[in-house]
Sequence to fold (197 residues):
Amino acid sequence: MTKERMAAFTDGVVAILITIMVLELKVPEGHDLAALMAQWPLLLAYALSFVNVGLIWNNHHHLLMSVEQVDGRVLWANLFVLFWLSLLPFVTTWMGESHYANFPTALYGIVMLFTAGAWSLLVSSLIRSNGGSESFLARAIGGHRDYKTLISALLNLIAIPSALLGFAWIAVCCYLAIAAIWIIPDQRIEKKLAVDK
Fold:
């Protein structure tokens, strides 16, 4: 399988996930701003998840620009990322409709933490299938500390127990901070691509 086919499949799954999430939004019962504002918990959860899905899709694009081929291990790692992403519509709706109750808010963080772990597995699989430590991807990301990933993991590890202990808004602030950190795609790959051109 070519990397283009894997990218096309991933694009399709991402499009479906975004469609499912937006279909979970309920039309307000009233016809004024107050009726719309009553939906704010679900709208905020949707916006957060939309940004997270968009960030993963954007970084997936950058990741695949840096490799030449994929193999079976990469395909399974990519499916593992998509599995965790596919749970986002469920946890997003539950978190929003519950008005950020403790367990649904913690579960959102658990899904995002496992998505990040699956992402790391995808990166290491791509490195292995494209020449190991001498691959372009390994050279692009290998010599730099990945502070964004470390900070994101730390924030998730703060968010999940905070939500479980009744401080769901601390968790939501952590989730928003993680999204803000990743708004700019992984610059290590872009910088290496610019140097090698």
